[in-house]
Design brief:
CATH topology: L-fuculose-1-phosphate Aldolase
Distance between the termini: 28 Å
Order of helices and strands: HEEEEHEHHEHEEHH
Strand order of the largest sheet: 4-3-2-1-5-8-7-6
Shape: globular
CATH architecture: 3-Layer(aba) Sandwich
Number of domains: 1
Structural class: alpha+beta
Number of helices: 7
CATH class: Alpha Beta
CATH superfamily: Class II aldolase/adducin N-terminal domain
Largest sheet: 8 strands, mixed
Strand content: 5-15%
Number of strands: 8
Radius of gyration: 17 Å
Helix content: 40-55%
Length: 215
Amino acid sequence: MLEQLKERVCALNCGLAREGLVAMTSGNVSGRDPDSGLVVIKPSGVPYEGLGVDEMVVVSLDGEVVEGALRPSVDTATHLVIYRRREDVNGVVHTHSNYATAFAAANLPIPPILTAIADEFGGPIPVAPYAPVGAEEIGKAVCEHIGDGKAILLKNHGVFTIGDSPESAFKSAVMVEDAAKTCFLARQLGTPEELPPEEVKRAHQRYREKYGQER
């Protein structure tokens, strides 16, 4: 079932390793099928190298395994909380990417010092309070602190991004790490200035309305 979605989610999970956003078996991508409400997610502890479509796990929004021989990611409960609370979200990505996670470890948001941050995120990338791994607390923290944005840092943990598709959430995960790295490097040179809020708003709106091709 959901063969196309499984192929997409599998490819994006492999993309996490290709983009250097994960180490070993950490991190995961999931995608929700809007019609059935079922979620496809990476299996727990399986290396990205050689990861296959047949290893993807299909779960219900209640966490029941609908299809798949392997156990789903230990972060499945987190993903499902987000899907249950946010009907507009059909893709979730979790990483421990180095620069963004460094900000999370320092309990520092990533400020909108770049047009790329304004474009993609529409403001600072916030930090949610620490929450224990493996239950629903992280998902609740994401939903309660992400606001209208697409990315959030989890204190002492890592990064979560959301989107209207798995591809959109994946793009945001790549952009978070790129922004965090540039922000870190800029701080080595001095004190970077944030863009004015009105310019952040203008840039974000323009990006949403003008960037890319009409569909």
